[in-house]
Amino acid sequence: MRAVTVPASVTAVVVAYDSAHALPDCLGALARDGVPAIVVDNASTDGSAEVAARLGAAVIRNGVNEGYGRANNRGVAAATTPFVLIINPDVILDPGAVAALLDAAARYPDAGLLAPMLIEPDGRVFFQPRSLLAPYLRNPAGVEWLPEGDCCAPFLSGAVFLMRRDLFTALGGFDENIFLFYEDDDLCRRIADAGHALVHVAGAVARHGRGRSSAPAPGRIFRGRWHQAWSRAYVSRKYGLPNPAPAMALKNVVKALGAALLFNRGRMARYGGSAAGAIAALRGVDALDYQGILDRRKGF
Asked: In sequence order, what are the residues at sequence separation of 6 or more whose Cβ sits closer than 8 angstroms to the Cβ of residue 247?
């Protein structure tokens, strides 16, 4: 297959955390299309930084795991191209996907963020019909539908997207108070509030490994659910929405107790993590303090 190249106008930013298993396919697809990559390594213990360097990527090494948004902000700050492509290590772009995104950016000058069609491991297309924070194109019932071509959307996944670097920077990048989850909803909201469209580009295709960005590790499920619950409460408060933390805490405490009675460790971790994250949000615990990150910027 003939390699498809793109103009020297885009840099990919990949945040790695124990992602050595996923980086070769992700970076290989980018290299095939001539897209340079900056890998921001969040203190991996599996040699992710070394794998990235061996594959030709520029590498930024964080001394601690700073979370998804903060690490991406560091990568974008190091880029010099007009566009940046934020991409998770478990995403593999089809040939020509970046060129299609850049072409769409030229055709839709009001677009603030452009994302490809995201194919899940089971072959389904990921297209989220609503967002907690969507200020327009509301779909409260969450009616599912798939676009037949390019379209505007209320939300586009942070797994992979293209943005103009100056717009990303002008908006402050990802909210650095968020360690994990809902940082893409928050960014989409701020892009829309700034008067830009979120565009789903049907002609660009990406394959998503979902959940393969980091290797399995003890406590990962609990911590992930903790941050998911905490971040939902945080962004709700940030945009003046009803606080979901009390209901989340109660529901997940009950579910965790039920899982404990059944000795189901997996469900105990999931529900226990969600309950703990919601309770932490109610108590005013900071997600970065929870992770032991002291240097931070407050977003509001």
From this structure: none
Residue 109 has pLDDT above 60, yes or no: yes
Closest alpha carbon to 186 in 299, 286, 67: 299
- pLDDT category of residue 3 using cuts at 50, 70 and 90: very low
pTM: 0.92
* Angle (nearest 5°) at CA 148 between 142 and 153: 45
The per-residue b/e assignment along 107-133, b for 16 or more CB within 10 angstroms, e otherwise, is: ebeebbbbbbbbbeeeeeebbbbbbbb
Q: Residue 147 and residue 126: Cα distance in Å, rounded?
A: 11
pLDDT single digits (tens) 194-209: 999 999 999 999 999 8
β-strand partners of 118: 126, 206
Which amino acid is located at 224 in the chain?
Answer: G
Alpha-carbon distance of 103 to 211, in angstroms, equals 30
State how far the Cα of 12 lies from the Cα of 35, in Å rounded to an integer. 7
